[in-house]
From TrEMBL:
Name by which UniProt lists this protein: Anoctamin
Family the entry assigns: Belongs to the anoctamin family.
Organism (species): Cyclopterus lumpus (Lumpsucker)
Swiss-Prot/TrEMBL keywords: Cell membrane, Glycoprotein, Membrane, Signal, Transmembrane, Transmembrane helix
UniProt signal peptide: 1-20
Length: 881
């Protein structure tokens, strides 16, 4: 009996444990889930907070804020800190029920489907099988069918295609609606007048909450366990974020569905930009290969390298005291290198490119992008979207710092404003930052001169031979490479400070809205980056060697007392130095940027995740996995656009001097797309979905760079054409003037002279067009100099005007919106009107039938209702509109 009783007791205990375990599992079926404990209500947003010393004040804020959220209709569920990894963090899960979603979808005019689209897609491209290896599966490229959409109206729910209210609004739309509520929900008690205490952004800035983010739908390396939950993150990682997919097309529709239109537009632009780079890279590669193949046919380089010709020409010193006399054949390497990009074929192709601005001025690039952008606007329901509606909310920083208030004539509410006097003072202070740009430019020129003098003093013999591919490295080339490396280091250091200065200046101006803040920061940051990255290239391309003077009357940067003589170009020109500058700065920036983008988020996430390792239980809940990831800030895309626009400037402003620049940019962008995709998918929290019709202020910046590239490329092309013609006519006799060594002042003469120089010649040569000694116009400019100057000015002016005319003509000829998109848009508008008309007629008929059945009406009222139905049925199209 005792044994039986014990057995029964054990069975009852086991049964009770099993029941309790099952009930617990039912409450918490899976920690790696995007649903509440009941497994039904979806988690649309997560807030996290930690109790600290200031806890009582923050608890009051949270209590009021959460109470107001519940008044708005949101449902909340809290995870205790004992269930978290670090046993310190609370997680507040938020669910938006149907009634809340429908209300705010009506307020935000969110477009939702009401009928499957019957508009046919564009015809298949001939030979489509050639592009088959680059295609992705159809369910990845088009994660949902095409629908006709219309702004949601809560009063017309039966008009829309609502099969399941829980899945009618996708997760990206749900988190957008919830964030809209969070950003406007107050945290003061009812009856108080502290209207500035509003929004989750203020609560995040004062530390009441530590994070606010929507959840990823699953882990990126495996599908979601719950069959009802999507696995879009897994699909993005598998088909988009891995580098092995670099040759595949981007699933833009899936990116837009998961991250929102703003991020989708960025990747669409980046992908299109990379595609266009391919054609420019092919053209530049052809020119470079032709230069290599015609290596031995360069007669001018043979003349310079010849021991009897170039070896017999003594050149004047390139600097005072430390620089010796040198022979022309010491520039043999730079002459041969210049030939690789200064060939007849390259002249023809560059003339064609400069004349039509096919790529250099990016006219076609910008126009074709406008057409691609218009197609995306139609396909992504952005045609009627006004970006200002989303960005007009006043920034919390503006509300805090602006204590003055006035009546808004539109909203008829008191709102903060910044007085005109304070605004003017802040703008004047912002303008003072131009001093930093000037200082950077002057310091750049100074250190270049210092490096040149240092190398000249170390390498006293310019004919000292350092064998490299059968040619020689000269002090000029060594100086160029070293100065470019130092320049890159200084650029990266200044870039660090410039970013913080730009943010500080923009914060100091206190912009009112987020859109205004982003546009101001965009302009300031690009101006800083423009001066920082391009000043050295502009100096070498357009200023170096132009204001040198001549032996006996050299020009000094800060006067003769400074002893900083303006640099001279190599007798072969400054082309090799500009190319070196572009290769080092552009390649170094791209390499450093990719390493930084990949390693920094990885290291930060590793450091965040290791903080909770002391806890014995590893819960790995969905919200904790996302909590340790990096937050995607509002300016996250800003730095991505900035990096690409700076690169865009390199390959458009200076492509005439370095034809391989588009090829380097192409390789970088192929990697950049996958690095950004990997970063978004694996290292960042899911950003709040937001809409955008275009790339914003960056469009105007690209237009400005395109116009400036016309000037720079035409000027560089003239220099190359002039150099090419001079080489054909005889480089030495046409571009080198003669000076009497005995007339060189003492402070210009070298301190030491080489053995080969003693009594070898009485004259030296220098690059200029001046009369020789003994002429009646000794050392003044020859007529050839003025003829060349006049021809150069005429060429540049005429060429620029022709290019601008062609540029604007091409822009006028190409419509911004494709004809098929216009037709599909008109067809959709027409069908929407038809469906709305039929819907209203049917609704009126039902109302008439219901009213006739429920209560008898007078003959006059029945006639009125019948006439209303007939009006809807027989009304003309103009009246329907």
């Amino acid at each position: 009996v005792s044994i039986c009783c014990s057995s029964i007791a054990c069975l009852l205990a086991f049964a009770s444990y099993s029941v309790s375990k099952l009930s617990t599992d039912k409450l918490q079926p899976n920690k790696d889930t995007v649903f509440f404990r009941d497994g039904v209500r979806r988690i649309d947003f997560v807030l996290s907070y930690v109790d600290d010393k200031d806890g009582e004040k923050k608890q009051d804020r949270r209590r009021e804020f959460e109470a107001n959220l519940e008044k708005e209709g949101l449902e909340l569920e809290t995870e205790d800190k004992s269930d978290s990894k670090d046993q310190k963090t609370y997680f507040l899960k938020i669910h938006a029920p149907w009634n809340v979603l429908a209300t705010y979808a009506d307020v935000l005019k969110i477009k939702v489907p009401f009928k499957t689209s019957d508009v046919p897609h564009s015809q298949d491209v001939p030979l489509e099988w050639l592009s088959h290896p680059f295609r992705l599966p159809e369910h990845i490229m088009r994660p949902q069918p095409d629908y006709f959409t219309y702004p949601f109206e809560k009063s017309k729910t039966d008009f829309f295609l609502i099969t399941d209210k829980d899945t009618f609004f996708p997760p990206s739309t749900r988190n957008r609606i919830v964030f809209y509520i969070l950003a406007r929900c107050p945290y003061y008690k009812e009856g108080q007048k502290e209207r500035d205490k509003t929004g989750i952004k203020r609560l995040l800035s004062n530390g009441t909450y530590t994070a606010a983010f929507p959840l990823h739908d699953c882990r990126y390396w495996k599908r979601a366990r719950n069959a009802e939950c999507e696995s879009e993150r897994y699909n993005l990682y598998k088909h988009w974020a891995r580098f092995l997919c670099f040759y595949k097309e981007q699933p833009l529709n899936l990116i837009r569905k998961y991250y929102g239109e703003k991020i989708g537009i960025y990747f669409a632009w980046l992908g299109f930009y990379t595609e266009m780079l391919f054609f420019a890279a092919v053209m530049g590669l052809i020119c470079f290969i032709y230069g290599l193949l015609s290596y031995e046919d360069n007669m001018s380089s043979k003349e310079i390298c010849d021991a009897d010709i170039g070896g017999s020409i003594v050149m004047c010193p390139l600097c005072d005291k430390k620089c010796p006399f040198w022979k022309l054949n010491s520039t043999c390497l730079s002459s041969w290198t210049s030939h690789c990009t200064t060939t007849f074929l390259y002249m023809i192709l560059q003339l064609f490119a400069s004349f039509l601005q096919i790529y250099s001025a990016v006219t076609l690039f910008l126009e074709i992008w406008k057409r691609r952008q218009a197609r995306l606007e139609y396909e992504w329901d952005l045609v009627d979207f006004e970006e200002e509606q989303q960005q007009l909310q006043i920034r919390p920083e503006f509300e805090i710092r602006c204590t003055n208030k006035r009546l808004n004539k539109i909203t008829q509410e008191m709102e903060p404003y910044l007085p005109v006097t304070s605004k003017c003072a802040r703008f004047c202070l912002s303008a003072a930052t131009v001093i930093f740009w000037v200082t950077e430019y002057v310091s750049h020129s100074s250190y270049r001169l210092a490096v040149h003098a240092a190398f000249a003093s170390i390498i006293k013999d310019p004919m000292r031979k350092i064998q490299v591919v059968g040619r020689f490295i000269t002090p000029q080339l060594a100086t160029s490479v070293t100065a470019s490396c130092i320049n890159f280091v200084i650029i990266m250091i200044l870039n660090f400070f410039y970013e913080r200065v730009a943010v500080w200046i923009t914060d100091m101006e206190i912009p009112k809205t987020h859109l205004e803040y982003e546009n101001r920061l965009t302009m300031k940051m690009f101006l800083f980056q423009f001066v920082n990255y391009y000043s050295s290239c502009f100096y070498v391309a357009f200023f170096k060697g132009k204001f040198v003077g001549f032996p006996g009357d050299y020009t000094y940067m800060f006067g003769k007392r400074s002893k900083l003589r303006n640099e001279e170009c190599d007798p072969g020109g400054c082309l090799i130095e500009l190319t070196t500058q572009l290769v080092i700065v552009m390649s170094g920036k791209q390499l450093w940027g990719n390493i930084q983008e990949a390693l920094l988020p990885l290291m930060r996430n590793w450091w965040s995740s290791r903080k909770g390792r002391h806890h014995p239980e590893n819960h790995n809940s969905r919200w904790e996995q996302d909590h340790v990831l990096q937050n995607f800030s509002q300016l996250g895309l800003f730095y991505e656009y900035l990096e690409m626009v700076v690169q865009f400037g390199f390959i458009t402003l200076f492509v005439a001097s370095f034809p391989l620049a588009p090829l380097l940019a192409l390789f970088n962008n192929i990697l950049e797309i996958r690095v950004d995709a990997w970063k978004f998918t694996t290292q960042f929290r899911r950003p709040v979905a937001s809409k955008a019709r275009n790339i914003g202020a960056w469009q105007e910046i690209l237009n400005a760079v395109a116009i400036l590239s016309v000037v720079t490329n035409v000027s560089q092309f003239h220099s190359r054409l002039k150099h090419f013609i001079e080489c054909l006519l005889g480089y030495v006799n046409n571009s080198l003037s003669i000076y009497n060594i005995s007339q060189i002042p003492v402070y210009n003469m070298p301190e030491e002279r080489d053995d080969w120089f003693e009594n070898s010649t009485a004259t030296c040569r220098y690059r200029d067009y001046r009369y020789p000694p003994g002429h009646r116009k000794e050392y003044t400019h020859t007529m050839q100099f003025w003829h060349i100057l006049a021809a150069k000015m005429a060429f540049i002016i005429i060429m620029e005007h022709v290019v601008f005319v062609v540029k604007f003509f091409v822009a006028w000829m190409i419509p911004d919106i494709p004809s098929d998109v216009k037709a599909r848009f008109k067809r959709e508008r027409y069908l929407i009107q038809e469906y709305l008309h039929n819907y209203e007629v049917e609704r009126l008929k039902l109302q008439l039938s219901a009213s006739f059945i429920t209560e008898p009406q007078s003959e006059m009222s029945l006639m009125t209702d019948k006439h209303e139905v007939l009006w809807w049925e027989n009304n003309s199209k103009e009246q329907k509109d």
